[in-house]
Amino acid sequence: MYLKTLTQKNKSDGRVRKYLQIVESRRVNGCPRQKVLLSLGRVDTPEGKKRLESLAEAFIQASERLSLLDLREDIKAHSTREFGTTLIFRRIWEDLNLAELLGSEMSEVETEFDLPEAIFNMVLNRLSDPSSKRQLETWQKTVEGIESFALHQYYRALDYLVDHKDDLEKRIFSRMRDLFCADVDVILFDTTTVAYYGDSDKHEDLLEYGFSKIRRGDLKQIVVGVIMSKQGIPLGHEVFEGNRNDVTCFSKIIDQVSGKYKVDKVIMVGDRGMVSKDNIRHLEEKNYKYILGYRMRTIPQEDRHKIFSEKEFRKLKNVELQFKEATYNGKRLIVCYSEQRAEKDRLHREHILEKIKDKIKSGNLSAIVDNTHYKRFLRIRGEKPVIDMDKVRRDAIYDGMFVLTTNTNQSAVSVVEAYKDLWQVELAFRQLKSELEMGPIYHWKDRRIRAHVMICFLAFVLRTVFYKKLKKKYRNVSYTAIMADVKALRTCEVSVKAEKIKLRTELEPGAVKAFRAIGMRPPSHLLSKVTLEGVVIRQ
Questions:
Q1: Radius of gyration, CA atoms only, the chain
Q2: What average pLDDT does this structure show over 172-199?
Q3: pTM of the full predicted structure?
Q4: C-alpha dist (Å) from residue 464 to 160, 297, 432, 439, 460
Q5: Which CATH superfamily is domain 165-310+405-447 in?
Q6: Contact, 55 vs 490, CB < 8 A?
Q7: Cβ(348)–Cβ(323) under 8 Å?
Q8: Which of 376, 475, 485, 495 lies in disulfide reach of 511, CB 3.0 to 4.6 Å?
């Protein structure tokens, strides 16, 4: 017996997945043949491979010892399944009463299958091993403790989910607020874009070309907005057309906050892309306070110089940041300076200038003249664009600076700290895109796109709850490291003569912490005995 790594390429997205198998070599009619004794599951990381190899080696050693007792023909290994993620996120799912919430919202829907359970499967898939909806039937066979559904049932569940999105979010919002005693006096909002990799001619209204935040302007996209509390609790989301800008997205969210969440006194926090005269007027009409990034370059050069130099900057305690207050056009401004940001701005400008030089040298002039990032450093000499060094020097003056505007009476320190909380939304987007693989999307129907994003949002809610429970129990903890150990917890089914035995693998340290954090006892080593007649005896 030996270990074998099987590599398969997914036809839909081109991703390569690796699986670990225990294989036995035999000779049949004088020719070597391989027989797969046990499939151990996916192994795409060094850590995962190490843990699975350890399990495999233990199995091989045990099998070899048993073979000495002439029991080899009576022992068979059947399958291993991922078990840890099911246990952890099932408990959080139950703590949030999501099955009950989904069931009550969809009580009028008559189906031959369990709708909430089908939705749980899709959410769990995002958290454990994100795959396309077409691969769910295959994936569910590799997971312990979940029901199996047909592909058309998953699609029906998606359709029902999007119909109840707003009511469900309101219920989740209420539950999360109670669970974490979350203050909703400050609401953070930001947007991101998700690219579409399907047939560009086959789509409905949501998929459009627009400003891509991943710099893929050649692809159609959607815009996703997420609102969160200042504690990092996800409160809701919205899907917009791909050609929407942040300003128009923000105005819709303003109306939803008061209508959907019944919140009257709130401070809306958003970046400079949300700022417009109409949005500020809209906020003030709703009697909302706001803290918004301000487009520095909208201030004329003379006024800008005066504002930035009228008095000395003050240092913000415990943070590498300086600030000063100013007034412009009746608006209260907080002008901030960061040395770290200054270095980032300098490197970004140098990168742009190098690109401009390369494109001028290659003769690709339209690519720089039509690009707003490039245009601000150019002037036209004759018919040829050249780098304007005066513009470069003027731009460098403001390296590291950013401006906030607010109608609150809060101290400048409180305003800056509230704005800095926006990094939680940016982090949320990174998690949605990388860990939960919200994008790229292949759905072209608007309802399916909205349902897909809703599944990702629900997964993000469960992830957030799990991580906050971990942080409450353990001060310094890595979600990635904990999840690696949780995913390593698997079941293994072995038959000895007339009896099947289901065991679990050993608990890794991170898995122990995960169970403790959610207040759950780990499962026993022996999960069940299954006779050949099919009678299950729980231990």
A1: 28
A2: 80
A3: 0.77
A4: 24, 37, 11, 19, 6
A5: Transposase Inhibitor Protein From Tn5; Chain A, domain 1 (3.90.350.10)
A6: yes
A7: no
A8: 485
